Structures are given as structure tokens and as C-alpha cells.
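I need you to check the entry underneath: sequence plus C-alpha cells. Let me know what the C-alpha cell row says about the fold.

>
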Amino acid sequence: VASFFFIGLMSMMIPLCHVFGGLIAVCLFMGLFDGCFICIMAPIAFELVGAQDVSQAIGFLLGLMSIPMTVGPPIAGLLHDHLGTYDVAFYLAGVPPLIGGAILCFIPWVHERQKLKAR
């Protein structure tokens, strides 16, 4: 969850970097947390759906991740054409990981409620 939050935060910090060294630092942290997220994606999928459906869950996650990665750059280009800056595109790119991290915070709570209902 922390890696997801930091990915969104680092995306939003890119427009604030006015020095090349700051941009390098933001990109290093973003890469570190992105690597952490990719590494924990399989165990999270295993925890949520079980061993039987984990391959389908990972495929579904990667398929969903491909949509914004394909559609995002043209939308960023359109925003740049209309606004004259990429800042809004970077701010908007940081919102989904922040929302996703917030949703992931509720998964243990939902999981416990399901266990209590099963008892």
C-alpha cells in the first residue's frame, strides 16, 4: 500500500522539480516503489483469490494496467495542446495510485469481515 501511495506522490512531484537533480531523485524513488509494487502484486493476488485463480487475477491486473498506459500519453498530449503544460497530466497521473492505495487499505478489514461472517 505504501508503495502505491508513493508512486502516486512521486508522479505528482515531477512538475515540482525545477532542478535536474531533483528530477533524478524523484525518478529513482518512483522506480524503487514501482519495483516494490510489481514484486508484491503476485502475493496480493494470491491472498485475495487463492491459489486456484491467481494466474487469472495477475493477468486481469496486468490487462487493467495496460489501459491507462496505452491511453494516458495521448490524453497527456491533448492536455498539453489545450493548456500549454504537462503539469496537469502529471497531477492527474498521480490520482489513481493514491485512490488505489486507499482502497487497498480496506482489504484487510473486508477480509476479516468475511471471516467473521463465515464463522
About this structure: The chain has five helices and no strands. The CA atoms of residues 68 and 93 lie 9 Å apart. Residues 1-118 form one domain.
